[in-house]
Design a protein that fits this description.
The chain is of the alpha/beta class. It is built from 13 helices and eight strands. α1 packs across α13. It is globular, with a radius of gyration of 17 Å. Bound molecules: 1,3-dihydroxyacetonephosphate.
Length: 257
């Protein structure tokens, strides 16, 4: 079973709609990104306010994702955005359970599972984020933490839905820090995530689900992560903000340079 490589940019709280259009214009001039898209799926997750502009302005080989989605269908939930609203704006991926959502906004394992369910229901591919913090890593709890997070996130999905989903392993200590695990260490954790998925949803789901690495990925190190057998690409913050850097990562992930 071959899994297509996937590069997703997570812009976090950066870029206005105007700045997002400028990124798209820049990407249109990067021939490397278009070539890479023959073998690598590409997506960018801007803030909600830039989704519509980006969906219109990006070349068709780059998809638009959301950084979050609320688990209710609609209602009196001031400030929240539903899966139907995202789908209607051209969104195809939805990040759920990013560590910043978990730590800064109190998102629980249970909420992440509900968000994955509502995303799938509306045709969005959930990008389920898991990862240990530094204290958990130092206490040798990495495997246990990511297993717990993974189980909760996929609990409400069928085997087929998990097979079509994306998981991103993002060690919290590697996010925005310039520090990364060795690619072999990330590979070992991701292999463990695949085993958990196999136990919960069967081996077909575990073989099909794409699992990304995230945390201080940049053009210079992405190929080393992508070369690991169980790592299917990357979820990238800071280095995805410039079109040229995004294009270089796409090229490197596709095996070019
Ligand atoms: P950085 O690539 O900036 O470390 O961010 C990683 C991340 O959190 C992507 O979701």
């Amino acid at each position: 079973m071959t899994r297509r490589k996937l590069l997703i940019g997570n812009w976090k709280m950066f870029k206005t709609a105007t700045e997002a259009r400028a990124f798209a214009a820049g990407l249109n001039t990067e021939s490397g990104a278009k070539q890479a898209a023959a073998s690598v799926d590409l997506a960018v997750c801007p803030p909600f306010t830039a989704i519509s502009a980006l969906a219109d302005a990006l070349p068709e080989y780059v998809k638009v994702g959301a950084q979050n989605v609320y688990f209710e269908e609609q209602g009196a939930f001031t400030g929240e955005i539903s899966a139907a609203m995202l789908a209607d704006n051209g969104v195809t991926f939805a990040i759920v359970g990013h560590s910043e959502r978990r730590t800064l906004f109190g998102e629980t394992d249970e909420a992440v599972g509900k968000k994955a369910v509502v995303a799938v229901k509306h045709g969005l591919t959930p990008v389920i984020c898991v990862g240990e913090n530094l204290a958990e890593r130092d206490a040798n709890q990495t495997a246990e933490v990511v297993a717990r997070q993974t189980r909760a996130a996929i609990a409400g999905l069928s085997s087929e839905q998990v097979a079509a989903s994306v998981v991103a392993y993002e060690p919290v200590w590697a996010i925005g820090s310039g520090r990364t695990p060795e690619p072999e260490d990330a590979e070992a954790v991701i292999d463990g995530i695949r085993k958990v998925i196999s136990e919960e949803k069967g081996s077909a789901a575990a073989k099909s689900v794409r699992i990304l690495y995230g945390g201080s990925v940049k053009p210079e190190n992405i190929a080393a992560f992508g070369a690991q057998p169980n790592i299917d690409g990357a979820l990238v913050g800071g280095a995805s903000l410039e079109a040229s850097s995004f294009a270089r990562m796409a090229t490197a992930l596709s095996g070019g340079n």
